[in-house]
Amino acid sequence: TYEHLRAKEEILTACWDAGWNAVPEVKGDNWIADVVASRDTQNVVFEIQISGIAWQEIKGRHQSYKNAGLSDFWFFRSIPRIPEREFGHG
């Protein structure tokens, strides 16, 4: 959507302005990140979630990024419902 593309553009611009190398739509093992930014030894993923998403999907993607040595940061239109049993676990 336009909103999603615009958010990616804003994140890319902010990363570049801050001196980071940033690339959209990076493919890894079983994942595609909206934006991956790197500087020195730091590598981060930015995910923009406009539509609804299940908590289990977020957890799965987070684990994939973690396994790839990436920190992930998420931007949500609306915060997903997190099961109460999940608070403080992961």
Helix amount, in percent? Answer: 25-40%
State the distance separating the first and last CA atoms: 30 Å
Overall structural class, as computed from helix and strand content, comes to alpha+beta
Which stretches are low in confidence, meaning pLDDT under 50 for 5 or more residues running? none
- Which sequence of SSEs, written as H and E, runs from N to C? HEEEHE
Shape: globular
Radius of gyration (Å)? 14 Å
Question: What is the number of helices?
Answer: 2
> How many β-strands, per DSSP?
4
What does the main sheet amount to? 4 strands, mixed
- Side by side, the strands of the main sheet go 1-2-3-4
Q: Beta fraction of the residues? A: 25-35%
Short description:
By secondary structure, this protein is an alpha+beta fold.
Could you explain how this protein is built, in words?
By secondary structure, this protein is of the alpha+beta class. It has helices at 2-17, 55-67, and strands at 21-28, 31-39, 42-49, 71-76. A 4-stranded mixed beta sheet has the order 1-2-3-4, with helices on both faces. The longest helix has 16 residues, at 2-17. The protein is globular, with a radius of gyration of 14 Å. The termini are far apart. 17% of the residues are buried. The model has no long low-confidence stretch (mean pLDDT 88).
